[in-house]
Amino acid sequence: MRKNADYLTGINFETAPGVEVSNDKALFANRVGGSFGEPPMEDTGRHGAVAAQLRRVIQEPGMRKPELNRITAALRNLTPMQRRVVAAELALLDKQPATTLIIEGRFATTAACPHCQAKDAIRYGHANGLQRYRCRECGKTFSALTGTPLCGLHNRGKWLGQAEALRDGLTLHKVADALHIHVSTAHRWRHRFLALPMAIQPQALTGIAEADETMFLLSFKGKRSGLDRKARKRGGKASKRGLSHEQVPVLVARDRAGVTMDCVLKAMDMTTLSAALKPFLTKDVVLCTDGSLALAAAARHIGVEHHAVNLSAGIRVDGAWHVQNVNAYHSRLKAWVCKFRGVATCYLANYLGWFRALDREHGNDPKPAQWLTMALGGTA
Length: 380
Hints:
Layout: H1 2-9, E1 19-22, E2 25-28, H2 45-58, H3 65-75, H4 80-95, H5 98-104, E3 121-127, E4 130-135, E5 141-142, H6 159-168, H7 172-179, H8 183-194, E6 208-217, E7 247-255, E8 260-264, H9 270-277, E9 286-289, H10 293-302, E10 305-308, H11 324-338, H12 348-360, H13 368-375
Parallel strand pairs: 6-9, 9-10
Antiparallel strand pairs: 1-2, 3-4, 4-5, 6-7, 7-8
Helix pairs in contact: 1-3, 2-4, 6-13, 7-8, 9-10
């Protein structure tokens, strides 16, 4: 058994975490669930270490068949007592809801401390249904939710339902009805889930990149007092035609491969546009815009090749130069946002990130598990 167990776990049990060996007798500091600081199980020192290592290996996302075969071979040599320990561990894993498995998957390889970023942590019991860890460096405890936007939210069993709502683009009232939660809870969950996907932008645009701005109506939706104007119906229209202080500019840049960046702008001048575009444009990118003088000045300031299409003269396409791609994106974005009957300007960036994630998959919308992973700081 010792040979097979060592082969299985790849460690020496005398130095296994949570196991101290004295006079050939192992003192087990873990319970079957793998937590520290709880009463030890009787006569399960090394057996518990096997179970703990089994759990870590089984939770690996990409287990290969030879590894599974080695585990199976080692299990055949277990004593009845050892089999009971391993069976209890497997039963515990089976009882974990899908949401918990996704959350715990953040630390599938190494638990990184959110307080000091050290990667030297030990298992330290369970809290609120999640594995708790204790950092050896700073001594603080944490779980896989600590430091994420979802930390502190309740009803984890409904989080995948919220992720499905993001995939389907449901309104708040539809989400509240489907998940049997209050509308204010649905609102809070939506923007907690979107806090990190909102910041997922491409590293760079390549080839020919089109850039153009679109306008959204300035909105204080949800604000009950302190308005400097008369409240209007949700969605509504501006009091003036054309550009004005009632419009919020949103810059969208998109290359011909469909890679898209966007952001809310405070102004439409050369300095603001340059600061927004520069991180995404390399020197070999060709920027194509409409007749905007501010975008032309921004292209010169960044130092990239620039071609402008004179839309005012009726020229839509000039050879390879056009902004049809980015304008089509504007149309899809506006049509999608319309269902929400107005978007509060303070949350506009969240909605841009939401639609960007949907459009990035080209019709193959992220699955609920992928939405939950993105909300926890991973990538779809």
